[in-house]
């Protein structure tokens, strides 16, 4: 009861005194005064109140050349032959890749615009397609670069941009080093694969190839012997004619002993003269054959080394790989290594194994079969051999009429047989050497 009475009393007192319940007063909102941001020189503010600015003009050739010189990079491929220091033009740079553009943007402490920013910047850059493709390897569409700066002085963004610019030379070098490493890996795989294929091919081809060379030699010998027999026939015909004349004179002529002896001596002197010429030819053939055989040994060694070893393309590739064994320390060195590795990779791909310059196993077998048929055909035609034998018998038969023995004649007939064999042998060696040289030239071709 007491508490209820107190509440009523207080309430009555409040009514008597006119007490009111008051709302707390609200503070007036602060007045925010936006201070216009001053745009960097050559740029305009992209959005009101935002620290995002865009270039008024596209990057110029001279600006890009100065950047290249400062970072130790070569001029783009389209500018090859022009020294960076001489490029001072104000024309827009065209044809850069996305990465080249990004690197320059970092150097300028800027970045490329987003698609939304590009639309907002239409009043500055005009109506043109968005120039920054998603593919980092693609060219910047149109080539012209309008860059964005999204920081103000003293901000954390400025510090980040400065750090990216300071790190840029190392970033560029690391990218080029990665390219060198990638190319070296590709080239190493290509070299290993080509060498393996070459060894397998040579293992299967070697026996058939050298057997083919021997068939070429045999075919050349058979053909050359036919030519040599034709020359021998000419000599034998002249011998038979001269000897027959001597026989007729001795048999029907009224000759004194001295005259008969003179006729015989004249015939023998003619034989001696022919022998002298034959001996000169024989010595020449022997010397030439020895020289050719020595050359065959040397060429065979070079050929087997080339066929079982490295092609010129593989040798050049290994040299390029050796040069890229250590990471390049400068952009220029990295570019030079990339060029060497790329060229070597192209040569290995184009040349293939060294044995690509030789006929295939199927082609070797086909040519060997054709040579076997040719040798068989030529060997079966013994017309010249029979004609030589008939002349020899005819010459020998005249001895009974003359009743003399001719030492020079017997020696000459033996030497003519040897001459035909020597000529055939030399031509066979020539054919084998020619086959080796042709094969070696195929292996040595780039």
What does this protein structure show overall?
The protein is an all-alpha fold and 446 residues long. The protein folds into 2 domains: 43-150, no CATH class; 176-444, no CATH class. It contains 12 helices and 3 strands. The chain has helices at residues 2-17, 61-71, 98-107, 115-120, 122-125, 156-252, 257-308, 312-323, 331-351, 361-380, 383-402, 407-444; strands at 43-45, 53-55, 148-149. Strands 1-2-3 form a 3-stranded antiparallel sheet, with no helix packed on it. Strand 1 (43-45) and strand 2 form a beta hairpin. The chain is rod-shaped. Residues 1-22 and 30-34 have low confidence and may be disordered.
Please supply descriptive tags for the structure shown above.
mainly alpha, 2 domains, disordered N terminus, 12 helices, 446 residues, single chain, 69% helix
How would the blueprint of this fold be written?
Blueprint: H1 2-17, E1 43-45, E2 53-55, H2 61-71, H3 98-107, H4 115-120, H5 122-125, E3 148-149, H6 156-252, H7 257-308, H8 312-323, H9 331-351, H10 361-380, H11 383-402, H12 407-444
Antiparallel strand pairs: 1-2, 2-3
Helix pairs in contact: 6-7, 6-8, 6-9, 6-10, 6-11, 6-12, 7-12, 8-9
Number of helices: 12
Helix content: 55-70%
What's the count of strands?
3
Q: Strand-and-helix sequence, N→C?
A: HEEHHHHEHHHHHHH
Overall structural domain count: 2
Low-confidence stretches: 1-22, 30-34
Arithmetic mean pLDDT: 84
Rg measurement, Å? 50 Å
Strand order within the widest beta sheet: 1-2-3
Query: What proportion strand?
Result: under 5%
How far apart, in Å, are the first and last alpha carbons? 121 Å
Shape: rod-shaped
Largest sheet, in brief, is: 3 strands, antiparallel
Which structural class fits the helix and strand makeup? mainly alpha
